[in-house]
Amino acid sequence: MTTLATRVSKQLASLYGFQSQLSNVQKYLVKVSTGIISVNHQIVYHLQDALNLLPNLADTDLMQSFTMSTNDQMLVVYLSSLLRNCTTCTGGQQGNYWMC
Known about the structure:
- It is built from 3 helices and no strands.
- It is mostly helical and 100 residues long.
């Protein structure tokens, strides 16, 4: 497996784990709100700390920065993919990269 594929698979596994943890938090909050279990203030404090670390997405400057960063990253991915495909099309022959 390539380095990029390994990195993507690890990030995907991390996202699945994150989704699982969010699901557990949701189940806990539903049980607390319906009165099935009592509030554990330590958990609520940790949740509040985590939510306070989230960026304010209503800030237009921050959103523009995220958008520009994402666009720059996508450009690099696109160009590297284009170059790899052109190299594959020509069989890696010197000087013929743009002939595909």
